């Protein structure tokens, strides 16, 4: 719930309150689920492709979205985002 600048809070991202800064745009940090991964564990999981941890998390997220009948949205991973 609490942002740790320069990171926004996961809550801000999930409820659509997050607005990308110039630094975020330059680092390819777009809102949606991939940015939440970046906030929580970006140093370990972002800016790398085909990470099994990220792929598993995306799979779980998509499954819950399906159960709740909501769109998972774009930008599900952080493979091309610079970590915070």
From TrEMBL:
Keywords: Carbohydrate metabolism, Glycosidase, Hydrolase, Polysaccharide degradation. GO terms for biological process: cell wall macromolecule catabolic process; chitin catabolic process; polysaccharide catabolic process. It catalyses: Random endo-hydrolysis of N-acetyl-beta-D-glucosaminide (1->4)-beta-linkages in chitin and chitodextrins. Pfam families: Glyco_hydro_19. InterPro entries: Glyco_hydro_19_cat, Lysozyme-like_dom_sf. It is an enzyme of class 3 (hydrolase). Its EC number is 3.2.1.14. GO terms for molecular function: endochitinase activity. The keyword Hydrolase applies. CDD domains: chitinase_GH19. Residues 1-78 form the Glycoside hydrolase family 19 catalytic domain. This is chitinase. It comes from Panicum miliaceum.
